[in-house]
Amino acid sequence: MHRNALAVIAAVAISAIPVIALAQPHLVASTPAAETSVEKPTAITLRFSEKLAPAVSGLDITMTAMPGMANHAPMKVAGFTAQVAENTITVALPRALPAGTYSITWRAAGLDGQPAQGDFGFAVR
By the 8 A CB rule, do 59 and 48 touch? Predict the structure, then answer.
């Protein structure tokens, strides 16, 4: 009986290893925060639940609306490089974002290679 109990415990412990090893990174916090209105930011920071693989992690910034322009087509923001360190993606913008609404689309992979992606919006006053 004792041997059977140990075998069951060992089987459960071993079967949990792949689940733990294949966990995807989750967005924990961002600056600007999702669905907020902020003064003209000069940086974007995303923090994740685990260390990231820099080669496959990054973000895109798209201006989705601009004050005074009724039919503003989405416009990708260019001129920056995303830096990945540990569990954080940081973008130092060459100039502050102008007033409007923005979408951040991110992609991230943990060191085990499991990819994740997501998006959120914020407004600049």
Answer: no
Cα distance between residue 62 and residue 119, in whole Å: 11
Report the half-sphere exposure of 105 (CA within 13 A, side-chain side): 8
Specify whether the CB–CB gap between 118 and 86 falls below 8 A: no
pTM over 0.90: no
CATH code at 25-124: 2.60.40.1220
| 2-6 contact pairs (CB < 8 A, 24+) | none
Q: Would you state the pLDDT for residue 19? A: 46
How far is it, in rounded angstroms, from Cα 31 to Cα 47?
9
pLDDT single digits (tens) 64-85: 999 999 888 999 999 999 999 9
* Per-residue model confidence as pLDDT tens digits over 22-72: 689 999 999 999 999 999 999 999 999 999 999 999 999 999 999 999 888
Q: How far is CA 120 from CA 5, 29, 104, in A?
A: 47, 11, 5
Question: Where along the chain do its domains lie?
Answer: 25-124
The DSSP output letter for 49 is: S
